[in-house]
Write a structure and sequence with these properties.
Elements (H helix, E strand, L loop, with lengths): L1 H40 L6 H15 L1 H7 E2 L4 E2 L2 H33 L3 E2 L12 H12 L5 E5 L6 H11 L9 E2 L10 H9 L15 E5 L2 H6 L6 E2 L6 H12 L4 E5 L2 E5 L2 H11 L9 E3 L19 E3 L7 E2 L10 E3 L7 E2 L12 E3 L21 E3 L20 E3 L21 E3 L9 H7 L7 E6 L2 H8 L8 E7 L2 E2 L4 E3 L8 E9 L2 E3 L2 E3 L2 E3 L15 E8 L15 E5 L30 E5 L19 E5 L22 E4 L4 H4 L5 H8 L2 E3 L17
Parallel strand pairs: 3-5, 4-6, 4-7, 10-11, 11-13, 12-14, 13-15, 15-16, 16-17, 17-18, 18-19, 19-20, 20-23, 21-23, 22-24, 23-27, 27-28, 28-29, 29-30, 30-31, 31-32
Antiparallel strand pairs: 1-2, 8-9, 25-26
Helix pairs in contact: 1-4, 2-4
Length: 701
């Protein structure tokens, strides 16, 4: 009985050993085949079940030695029958699952993996200004370490366009991917819908460096990028400026645009023939003539008649006589409407009712336009609104609904009395021009300005001392300020200290003020705070190109200008106490050792009605860009910081204009060579009597 049992058991164990040995070989071979296929396809799809069975197989193989040690009688018997039985059963079950997965699952996966699929999306061939961003985004996405790429930025900046370009780029190259899946996620998030859309092609694993899957998405919020696990989110910025100038410059050099001067400003215009050609190209070689309606200066008294309003995309009605805009037809595709100098007096509240895609609206230079209809709230896609040089008395509450607005221009709206509560609703506002607006920049408006998260360019005028103090202490507003005008303030005791954070300041004006000193803020260096004058190698106002000082009492010097290396225009008039432009004593810490040579980019210098002015600078300066110096009634200015090498040479040398004929005879030239050179370019000019402390001559911009 015992032997039989023993034999029976032996026979059973012998069978198990043979089965174990044979099945182990088959199992291991099958598993290796499965792993080989997994290794070949793991870069393409997420083989969750493969990894599960692989882990189980590895665990069984790890336990193999222990199981072999339990065998006795030359491997025909086991010291623990129950454990050996369970182990063999696990091997058998795992083998069956592996073979099943190997024979069925991979048939589908391999069949799907043979073809590369990408749905190319419609897009215009080139997007102006995005070429560099596209290249950066593509290179970033192709890095092995990047699994998730997030593109964030404000609405309308071009995020979806950029992602579409990335999608279409895959149509010409596979780059090791089998599928490129485009999914739109709306505000009303439905995970099931997204999963269903993805599942129609394949299931997607969480991207890792091992599986080399990638996810790219766009969002307006940088916080969403962080939530999605993006380590280096990429901001998609507006074109709005140096790149824009480069593009315009290229068009000028190609003679497609022409340089023109208009009231001292630099502008460009397009020849009529070139414009007609551009319109012809833009209208699909004339096939869509009504897509672009251009009736500038045509003497229109009403909106032009259009056969099919729904195909109109852009409309220019500049310089016409359209006094009234009634309720309009449906312009469902209209994106740009230019009504500058159209002589508007009234706009119907229904006019904007059927323009859902309008993004650009220019109503500037309509001096008889006093009201803006509340119906403007229906322009839900509006990004640019220009109301400059109009007589608008107030902004309707409907403006608060323009959530996509990026650019708001209120320059010279001197009838505009109040905008409280408006600005804080325009969350995407990036460019804001408040220069010479009718309302004062009080603390309430300044607080609203500080809530604008995306604000990058600010042009303002301040006439309240409390507002000035709040503004200058704002770490949010000062770096964004492009143009700053301070007027009608009494600052004899405190002066003004410009923070060095104003690195983007381009134009600085002080008019009709009593001010003792114009200073700079401090610099933090090695845990201590010092004045820039103590570290004169530091240039603080790198963007500052134009400074106008008009009718300012008490100020005696403008030494801070030595820290504006790119200053192009300087006009100082009616500063009765001004003695030095740059004071030697104030800059003595740097002196000759500072390395700073002021006014290297200066082109125009205007000095007028400065009875106490004695010095511009104490040594000759190279002035390599200087074109003109105007000296108007500065009787004590005997020395000019010039030598024979100063200024531009050749036919375009420096012109010195002066109004008092005897003044040129009192100038003390540094040597005869300097005198000989510059006397040839000195020009005596007559001036019109000026009784109101207004600027004597035009100042270039």
């Amino acid at each position: 009985m015992g032997n039989c049992v023993s034999l029976s058991i032996s026979s059973d164990q012998s069978m198990k050993k043979v089965m174990f040995t044979t099945s182990r070989r088959i199992w291991r071979a099958t598993m290796e085949e499965l792993k080989a296929k997994r290794d070949d396809l793991s870069r393409r799809v997420w083989l969750t079940r493969v990894e599960t069975f692989e882990n189980e197989a590895n665990n069984l193989l790890s336990a193999r030695n222990g199981q072999l040690q339990r065998l006795c009688l030359l491997g025909f018997c086991s010291k623990s029958l129950i454990l050996s039985y369970r182990y063999g059963k696990s091997v058998s079950m795992n083998l069956r699952e592996v073979e099943k997965l190997n024979s069925k699952v991979f048939e589908v996966i391999v069949e799907q993996a043979h073809t590369f699929e990408v749905e190319e999306r419609q897009l215009q061939s080139t997007i102006v200004g995005q070429k560099e961003m596209l290249e950066n985004a593509w290179n970033h996405l192709m890095e092995d370490r990047v699994g998730i790429m997030g593109l964030y930025g404000m609405g309308g900046v071009g995020k979806t366009t950029l992602l579409t370009q990335l999608n279409n780029k895959f149509s010409g190259m596979t780059c090791g991917f089998d599928f490129v899946i485009w999914v739109v996620v709306s505000k009303e998030l439905r995970v099931e819908k997204i999963q269903s859309e993805i599942a129609r092609k394949i299931g997607i694993p969480f991207p890792t460096t091992q599986n080399r899957c990638k996810v790219a998405f766009t969002t307006r919020s940088k916080a969403i990028c962080a939530h999605m696990g993006v380590e280096e989110p990429m901001e998609v910025k507006c074109l709005a400026e140096n790149k824009g100038y480069d593009i315009i410059g290229s068009l000028v050099r190609a003679s497609l645009l022409t340089d023109v001067k208009w009231y001292g400003t630099e502008n460009v215009c397009m020849h009529d023939v070139v414009r007609e050609m551009a319109l012809w190209i833009a209208s699909d070689l004339g096939a869509q003539k009504e897509a672009f309606i251009v009736r500038a200066g045509a003497g229109l008294s009403e909106m032009p008649k259009v056969e099919n309003c729904n195909v109109v995309r852009r409309m220019s009605l500049i310089k016409n006589k359209i006094h009234h805009l009634p309720s309009s037809q449906e312009y469902l595709e209209l994106t740009t409407l230019l009504l500058e100098k159209a002589n508007l007096t009234n706009i119907s509240s229904e006019f904007f009712k059927s323009m859902p895609r309008l993004a650009v609206l220019d109503l500037s230079y309509n001096g008889n336009l006093f009201e803006l209809p509340d119906g403007i709230s229906q322009l839900v896609s509006l990004q640019y609104l220009n109301l400059s040089y109009t007589s608008i008395r107030h902004l309707p509450r409907g403006v608060q609904e323009l959530k996509k607005l990026i650019h708001l221009d209120l320059e010279e709206t001197d009838n505009l009395s109040n905008i409280d509560g408006i600005l804080s609703s325009l969350h995407n506002l990036k460019i804001l021009n408040l220069s010479r607006a009718g309302f004062s920049l009080d603390c309430n408006i300044l607080e609203e300005l500080q809530t604008l998260e995306h604000l990058e360019i600010l042009t303002i005028e301040i006439d309240l001392q409390q507002g000035l103090e709040q503004f200058l202490s704002s770490h949010k507003l000062t770096p964004a300020t492009r143009n700053l005008t301070i007027r009608c303030m009494q600052l004899e005791s405190s002066g003004i200290s410009l923070p060095i954070s104003m690195e983007n300041l381009r134009e600085f004006n002080i008019v009709w003020c009593s001010i003792s000193e114009i200073k700079m803020g401090t610099i933090c260096m090695e845990s201590k705070t010092v004045s820039p004058l103590d570290n004169p190698r530091t240039s603080c106002f790198l963007s500052l190109s134009k400074v106008i000082i008009l009718d300012c009492k008490c100020v005696k010097e403008l030494t801070l200008l030595m820290f504006a290396p790119n200053l192009r225009v300087l006009s100082v008039q009616f500063a009765k106490q001004l003695e030095d432009v740059i004071n030697k004593e104030k800059s003595r810490h740097g002196g000759e050792k500072s390395g700073i040579v002021p006014f290297r980019r200066l082109e125009f210098l205007l000095l007028g009605d400065l009875p106490e002015l004695k010095n511009i600078y104490w040594n000759p300066l190279p002035f390599p860009c200087l074109k003109r110096i105007d000296i108007i009634r500065c009787p004590n200015l005997k020395k000019l910081p010039l030598d024979s090498q100063s200024g531009k040479h050749g036919g375009n040398g420096v012109i010195i204009r002066y109004t008092v004929k005897e003044w040129i005879e009192t100038v003390e030239w540094i040597d005869e060579a300097t005198k000989t050179r510059f006397l040839r370019s000195c020009l005596h000019v007559c001036e019109t009597p000026n009784q109101d402390n207004q600027p004597h001559s035009s100042v270039p911009t």
